[in-house]
Write the C-alpha cells for this entry.
Amino acid sequence: MGRALWALAWPFFRLTPRPFFWGWRAFLLRCFGARVGRNVNICPSVRIAIPWNLEIGDYSALGDGVWVYNLGRITIGRQATVSQRAHLCAGTHDYESPTRELRKVPISIGDMAWICTEAYLGPGVTVGEGAVVGARAVATKDVEPWSVVAGNPCKFVKTRRVREQPAAGLESRS
C-alpha cells in the first residue's frame, strides 16, 4: 500500500523546480517515513524506490538522476554528496537459490563521503567517512574511510587528505 501511495505522490516530487523546492522534496520524503536532515538538497530527477528505507544527514545532496534503489535501508551521512546518475542498489537476489529469493541488503555512506558521477554501490557496501568513489566506479566491497577508489571493479587509488572542516553554516572570520 505504501509503495502505491508513493507512486501517486511521485509527480509532486518530480515536477517541482530544481533550485527552489529543496525543502518541499525533503518534506514530502519525511511524510513517507524518510529521515531527512537539515539543509539537504535533493534534485527533482532523483528516483527513490522506498522513502521509508532512506536516511540522509544534514547538509548532504543527491544530484540529478541519482537512482536510490533502497529495498534495503540506505543511510547517507552528514555533508555527503551523491553526484548525478549514481546508482545505490540495496537489493539483489540469492543467485545460489533455485528460486532466487530477494535479498534486501543495506548500504551506508559515511559523513563527508563523495559518490561521484555514475558510480555504482552494490548491496551491503559501506563507504567510510570522507571516502571518494570515483566517476563510473563499481563498488561491491566496503570502501575504507578517507580513501579514493576508482575503476570497475573499484580499486584503491590513494588516501584522501583530511582537512579541517568548518562547522556547517558558520562563516570564517578574517
The radius of gyration is 16 Å.
